[in-house]
């Protein structure tokens, strides 16, 4: 198994190359859209992490108590959902069959718990705003060949990254080796 390592920080020109490398996703083909999002999350993970930390710190300085409460609740719900997804057969099957819906339910559960403790707006600004920005970029940014190749290496287990581990825990990496072989064979034939 490969050791876990961060991907390099991608240059600004690669992250925002111009309008020709952005397109709205095909909402009728959810698997293709999901594949684009997962690929971009893996490829730009270090850039996304830096952006999330900057937004988190700005909001955290504005309301530190609300931010700490929000972070504790979200981490607890996430860890509880991962534990339940691994140890409870019903939840494990649901997570495997409906990975996007599983993530949606985790987000709803964290929101409901946050509303009990107060500080929902701090949570939305500090934690969800970076997630929305990241999701928007990952949904709109078209992938390039380098992006696709690096993601295939991650799927095959040749590389491991923090985002890959997180996506795997959420059930978002369902790609098998036969798909990887088909992709590599098609690229070799070109």
UniProtKB/TrEMBL annotation:
It is a multi-pass membrane protein. The keyword Membrane applies. One of its GO terms (cellular component) is endoplasmic reticulum membrane. InterPro entries: Prenylated_rab_accept_PRA1. One of its GO terms (biological process) is negative regulation of transport. It is found in: Cell membrane; Cytoplasm, Cytoskeleton; Endoplasmic reticulum membrane; Membrane. Keywords: Acetylation, Cell membrane, Cytoplasm, Cytoskeleton, Endoplasmic reticulum, Membrane, Transmembrane, Transmembrane helix. The chain crosses the membrane at residues 41-59, 65-85, 97-114. Pfam families: PRA1. Belongs to the PRA1 family. This is PRA1 family protein. It comes from Bagarius yarrelli. The lineage of its organism: Eukaryota, Metazoa, Chordata, Craniata, Vertebrata.
């Amino acid at each position: 198994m490969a050791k876990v390592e961060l991907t390099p920080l991608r240059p600004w020109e690669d992250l925002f190359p111009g309008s020709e490398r952005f397109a709205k996703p095909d909402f009728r083909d959810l698997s293709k859209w999901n594949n684009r999002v997962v690929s971009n999350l893996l490829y730009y993970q270090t850039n996304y992490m830096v952006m999330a930390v900057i937004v988190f710190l700005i909001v955290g300085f504005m309301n530190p108590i609300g931010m700490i409460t929000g972070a504790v609740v979200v981490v607890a719900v996430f860890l509880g959902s991962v534990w339940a997804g691994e140890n409870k057969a019903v939840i494990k099957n649901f997570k495997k069959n409906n990975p996007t819906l599983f993530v949606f339910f985790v987000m709803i559960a964290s929101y409901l718990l946050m509303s009990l403790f107060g500080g929902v707006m701090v949570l939305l600004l500090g934690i969800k705003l970076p997630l929305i920005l990241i999701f928007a970029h990952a949904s709109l940014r078209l992938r390039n060949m380098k992006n696709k190749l690096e993601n295939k290496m991650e799927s095959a287990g040749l590389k491991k990254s923090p985002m890959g581990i997180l996506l795997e825990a959420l059930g978002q990496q369902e790609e098998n080796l036969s798909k990887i072989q088909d992709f590599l064979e098609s690229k070799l034939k070109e």
